[in-house]
Amino acid sequence: MEKTHGCIHEGEHHKGTQDKCVSLVPIFNHLEEGQMDEIMNTARSIIFQKGEMIYQAGEQSDALYLVNKGKIRIYRLSESGKEQLVRILRPGDFTGELALFNEGVHESYAEAMLETLVCVIKRTDLQKLLLKYPTISLKILSEFSNRLDQSEKQTTRFATEKVETRIAMFLAECIDAEKDSHEIVLPMSKKDLASYLGTTPETVSRKLADLEQDGLIKQKLHKKIEILDLDGLLLV
Amino acid sequence: MEKTHGCIHEGEHHKGTQDKCVSLVPIFNHLEEGQMDEIMNTARSIIFQKGEMIYQAGEQSDALYLVNKGKIRIYRLSESGKEQLVRILRPGDFTGELALFNEGVHESYAEAMLETLVCVIKRTDLQKLLLKYPTISLKILSEFSNRLDQSEKQTTRFATEKVETRIAMFLAECIDAEKDSHEIVLPMSKKDLASYLGTTPETVSRKLADLEQDGLIKQKLHKKIEILDLDGLLLV
DNA sequence: CGAAAGATTGAAGAATTTCAAACGGGGTGG
DNA sequence: CCACCCCGTTTGAAATTCTTCAATCTTTCG
């Protein structure tokens, strides 16, 4: 029986979209026109509806997924079955890589948060591309080392900081992303944020209230938060 | 003023040792004789005494370090200055890679735990090797994705499991390493273990006592622990 | 409009840290 | 070779942080 999957389009039929898809992704955007075409021809694009799974833990991995449009929730289950949100993918991000170079089995779950368009490159095609264009490997190595760094930093935060500090640091990083403005929009629900930060929705709610009480932030409608005192936030 | 550093030997003068050093490392051990020689000629070996730093956070990164003999403690400081032990390197492991492919600045600290021999490959030499032998990149990609997986799994554990469970899981993984025997030797002090697991030495001490009380383990001399009930341990 | 999911708040309880004190073992210098 | 000292370890008690459970409120979305 078929598992839930998205609607498939052959790459050749959507060169316009494909072009944008591949060139969006940092690991490919240094290549020349002809090389890009070659990659486009090995890729196909798939649309996933909200709630559909791109892959699940335990499944055989056989492709790299490049996000073209939409958002994807990557989460894990711990040995004892509790869920943790690992990251959210946006256009330009990619996933599936862990299993590609590993034993080939996914360790995490990837779920479309809304209608999402992804480009798919099959494992065998990717391996050929990597050997043919070694600079792609260097790009992926760079991306991996970034992610590894991020992941280790996150681990260190869990290991050494209390919840309120982790929340404050998260808010501060949102500021970096939306430069200039001191108003951020939470990129996820507070429930997901709690999962991402390794705590409960109740605690997130309370700690945000505390931060507001202390005059460091101001919560507004629609997940918007104004940062009143960034320096103070980082001292929490 | 010179910072603390190890004693330097030119690679050419130690072919015997070099050979062992490079071939020990999984990312190179698939290469042919001649290629191995080429790498050996670009590497040099350095000895660090106990307590010496191989590198520190904030320093410019310019080399890959392959551990030949000894042990290296990799740790991070959180934004608020608290230390966390990230991993311990043993012969065959390598480090320095994060900064190599990233912005070039170390995010962690590497300290020799005892007299330690490392092979060093300079950044520029490595880049050349990677472009010349694309299979090395694939090996490193594989190693990276393993580490990333490990790191994310660790993060998920911090996010979802309580201390006692994390300790139990750690012990269970030690069993995997020392197969057959049900007696493990803690690879580090309980103080370091606490740092690695994101807790305090007091809590480690207490939780181990609890596990012993419950008949799941038996603590012996010299960091040795006998696992009496592996299944029970994983249910904690 | 109404159901379902997310968010907030309070109160009780559990888990963990912190501080303090005492103990032990391994390594070093005499 | 022994004694001493330092550092890691253990244990206790108090304090803190966080979770859990339950009830209520709000928002979203069909």
Automatic annotation (TrEMBL), chains A, B:
GO CC list: cytosol
One Pfam family here: cNMP_binding
Keyword set, alphabetical order: Activator, DNA-binding, Transcription, Transcription regulation
Protein's name according to its UniProt entry: CRP/FNR family transcriptional regulator
UniProt-listed InterPro entries: cNMP-bd_dom, cNMP-bd_dom_sf, Env_Response_Regulators, HTH_CRP, RmlC-like_jellyroll, WH-like_DNA-bd_sf, WH_DNA-bd_sf
Segments forming domain Cyclic nucleotide-binding: 27-147
Domain HTH crp-type intervals: 161-231
Organism: Bacillus benzoevorans
GO molecular function: DNA binding; DNA-binding transcription factor activity
Keyword Transcription regulation in annotation: yes
